[in-house]
Amino acid sequence: MYREAFFNYRKMFRSALKTILNILPTQTAKAHCDGPCGVYDPASTRVAAEAVLSMTKKLLAMEPPENNDPAAWASYNNTFSRYVAIKEEQAKEAKQELLILWTDYFKPEHLASYPDLHDTFWKAAKLCSACKVNIDQSKAEELMQAVEKIHHMFWKSKGRADSWVTAS
């Protein structure tokens, strides 16, 4: 009898808890990483920055329809908004990846070898923001240059000279 009552209370408790948790607002947490995994690589930053540059070029190359054809304008607006969304998402991703490298990988002892480390990362993060809010190819190219500089700083700090290779 006690056993049956225990399982009934347990079932009711789980049901009530599940209902409460489903009602409360939640946020998805993502991280790489506050654990001591030691896995860092600026490649994901390069890919995101390269996507920003690619989308910026595509946006600048777009030609609006010359007539008032609603279907043509709908297609143009759809493509334009998709390119902007991708550009902004990738600029945000590049900034996030930069901040992870800056705050988690690089340590105070790296400043001896790279006295401009903080300035380099700060300017790169600012370029991500500029690329998010503008359609400016020169800013996107500056971002790529900053990411390349960070790539070389990173690999040199590991005693390697990995080549800078872009996908496009």
Question: What's a concise summary of this model?
Answer:
With 168 residues, this protein is mainly α. Helix content is 71%, strand content 0%.
Largest beta sheet, briefly?
Answer: none
Instruction: Give the termini separation.
Output: 71 Å
The appropriate CATH architecture is Up-down Bundle
Helix proportion of residues, in percent? over 70%
CATH topology: Four Helix Bundle (Hemerythrin (Met), subunit A)
| Element string (H = helix, E = strand) | HHHHHH
Give average pLDDT, whole number: 89
Number of strands: 0
Q: How many domains make up the coordinates?
A: 1
Task: Describe the overall structure.
With 168 residues, the protein is mainly α. It has a single domain (39-157), classed as Nickel-containing superoxide dismutase (Four Helix Bundle (Hemerythrin (Met), subunit A)), CATH 1.20.120. The chain contains 6 helices and no strands. The radius of gyration is 24 Å and the shape is flat. The model has no long low-confidence stretch (mean pLDDT 89).
